[in-house]
Structures
1.
Amino acid sequence: MSAKKLLIIFLLSVAFFVSGKLHAQRFIGSLSAGMNLAQVDGDEEYGFKKVGWNIGPAITIPFGKSRKWSVTVELLFSQIGSKQKSQYLNDTVIDSTQVRYYDGYKLNLTYVQIPVLIHFTDKKSVAGGIGFLYGQLVDVKEWEDHNDERGTFRTSTDLSGPYSKYDLQVIADVRIRLWKRLWINGRYGYSIIPIRTREFQNPFVLTDTWTRKQYNNVITFRLSYFFNEEVPLKKPKN
């Protein structure tokens, strides 16, 4: 079953679950903006060094008598990927000169994402949630430089491959109220299906190759403003 079909089934299930609880309830609109810190597990690079935008609107649907539970659906523009600065490999020395075989790597993946989360809000000031995220790849650029006969490698930008056109992630989300309708939001996401399978080659032993599956690994920090949320009243001082 494709990721798109899984997403449709999940959305229909959520709609069916909350449909009986939405009487006299209202939709809460919000807008979030912030940044992603990303890496791609399986690309032989390490660290959340790729920085990109994470921005878009959302609709939250409270349900239940206490209205502490809610379903949130977002539409995001999101930039993730991987990045590595130039480095020396194994301190290789040829004719008394240190040879830099690896001049850096950069991968830019741009997605339109649809996260769907279920949140629980405690005391109207802290909320935690879990859910899934479907991402449609809309742009990809990749650079990998080698200071040897292989030269510079750059993938095609016409979405013909080698990266999958979609990404399905499991996500965990925490947000804290800063002031009235303004919240600070932290999120972690990880792909549950590979975005690519790649073969690597040892630059010193060309017959030494290996294959690894690659996954998006993303930490997100944002500010979120809820336009028509009920602001909790301050308790009067004794």
Note: The two ends are 60 Å apart (CA to CA).
2.
Amino acid sequence: MEVTASRLATEPFLRGMPSGQLDALARTASEVMFPARHRIFADGEYADKFWLIRSGYVALDVLVPGEGNVVIGRVGLGGLVGWSWLLPPYYWAFGAVSVTDVTALQFDAQAVRDLCAADREFRDEFTSRLFQVVRGRLLDTRTRLITRLHDTSPYAVA
């Protein structure tokens, strides 16, 4: 199915983005499907794509020595998966696995970087949205760490 600007306009991540910018972005996108338990990408691999989740859930994980892959977050409907493609050296800093069957809009990272380089207004709009996602993920991680540390704190009252 062809990805159009009107279709992109319904995505929470892109809602309210100018139509001309959505037209350009639509040309970098395709629809993909991943079966449950499919590794979409792994920590350290080259980051050349990113995804907006249309259905299903994706687990984000990191490889912890001695423990294997540890889930650090989940992304569902409307969520964005992947931002390591934006800045050099373009390698994933974590991994992603589909928890359920997933349909997503997949974007060509180089094409989006080219759009950012060619159009300052697009770059500012797009990266502002992307950094809001990064901010949210960092706040979620902070909350999980505080909760985990509080539960194991040597200062906890028994």
Note: Residues 151 and 158 are 11 Å apart (CA to CA).
3.
Amino acid sequence: MVTIAFASLKGGVGKSTLSMNVAACLHRAGHRVLLVDSDPQATCAAWAARAAEQGHDGPPVVAMTGAALRRDLAKVAEGFDVVVLDSPPRMNVEARAAMLAADIIVVPVTPGAADMWAAASTVAVIEEAQALRPELRATLLLNRADRTTVARMATKALEELGLPVLDVAVTQRVAFGEATLAGLGVVDYAPSSDAAREVRRLTRAVLDAMGSDASEVAA
């Protein structure tokens, strides 16, 4: 089992959307995926409820607090290939537990000064977690990007934060919001769309960043 956590100290950077879509992408590829919602906003849980209402086939979603993450995640996730963790937008017990439970942490950053500052703070916390678990990997992702100068500057700024930056970017697309409202990932809602292609590239890039830890999943 490999565990991917999406984490950031800043809200509104797209952690839940990315978590849902990566989980849906892996599920559609035939992997046994568990999506864990540790965000008090419970976006992933609401998405799963919508999927159930519509009769969609998607990855199972469970809500877990920080204490349960530390104590019960291995047992709850028994039999799954991949766990995707959506962590809360602040450094509380749930966020720290998600970091310590993960094999890789993906930090989404959207273009803008406030997001860069929050990313720097998140990186500092990740480095503390890596001091406890040197095997923990972490990477940055430019999310809701566009073709403007601001996005290009953001990419350059990310490279200076001290963590590797995924060689993919996810852009702001209407399909993500529409898919979420439908209780689907974009790979199911619009499989031939640019949004779906971006999610597939992102999922592969995250698994590649994990190296041998994800070899069985990536096969």
Note: Residues 2-207 form a domain with the Rossmann fold fold (CATH 3.40.50.300).
